Amino acid sequence: RCLGCESCFEACPEQAISVESPFPSPKVCTLCGTCVDACPSGARRMIGQSMTVEQVLAEVMRDRAFYEESGGGVTFTGGEPLTQTDFLLACLAECRANGLHTTFDTCGYAHWDDLKAAAGLSNLVLYDVKGIDDERHQATTGVSNHRILRNLYCLATLEVEVWVRVPLVPGVNDDEGSLKALGGFLADLPRRFPVWLLPYHRLGRQKRNLIGMAEACEFPEPSLGHVADCAEILQSYGIEVRTKP
Question: Is 125 helix (H, G, I), strand (E, B) or coil?
Answer without folding.
Answer: strand
